[in-house]
Amino acid sequence: MIRTLLLTSAVIALAACGAPDPEPASAPAAPAAPQPATPPAATPAPANSVSAEGWGPLRIGMTRAEVETALGADSNPGAVGGPDPEACDTFHPARAPEGLTVMVEKGVLTSIWLARAATLKTDRGFGVGDQASAIKAAYGSAASASPHKYSEPPAEYITAWSSGGGAGYVQNPAARGISYHIGNDGRVQMVAAGGPSIQYVEGCA
Questions:
Q1: Is pTM, for the whole model, over 0.90?
Q2: E-assigned strands of the chain?
Q3: How many C-alpha atoms does 58 have within 13 Å on its Cβ side?
Q4: CB-count exposure of residue 177 (10 Å: 0-12, 13-18, 19+)
């Protein structure tokens, strides 16, 4: 009996010697570093809006021939678009929306204009008839106001450069922006989008 107990104890001891050591308790995982919040996606501009780069098939920098291929020739060729059409001309392409005219300087499209019955809007959602106060609120410090050349306040010009602009009169041909011409009633009378020619206040000047 004693021999049986000794044998059993030996077997148990040997089994214990061959058993793997217990694994140490794992340390608690470090808290994950906070991830930066994903900024909300920008609201895309309406597909049919006017931007500093152009509208629809029109792109600032196109040749006059490309403009006419895209939207047709001058719908009123008898009208005088500028004192020297070879240097600067403004016209309404035959297939362009009502109220849209283009300005071509030395054969190159430099700006797009909205006036009178135009229903198109800019990529910020403003057009002819909208209030200057709403435009200023929407653009904030990205836009600057300047006195109107012919009328007293609230008439003014509100201009926002998206690239290449600056303080004072901008001459950089690569500059792009939008200018809202505000009338005596505090509302938009005209919109100009494109290069430095958006600063013109008398057609081609």
A1: no
A2: 54-55, 58-59, 88-91, 100-105, 108-115, 144-147, 156-163, 176-182, 188-194
A3: 31
A4: buried
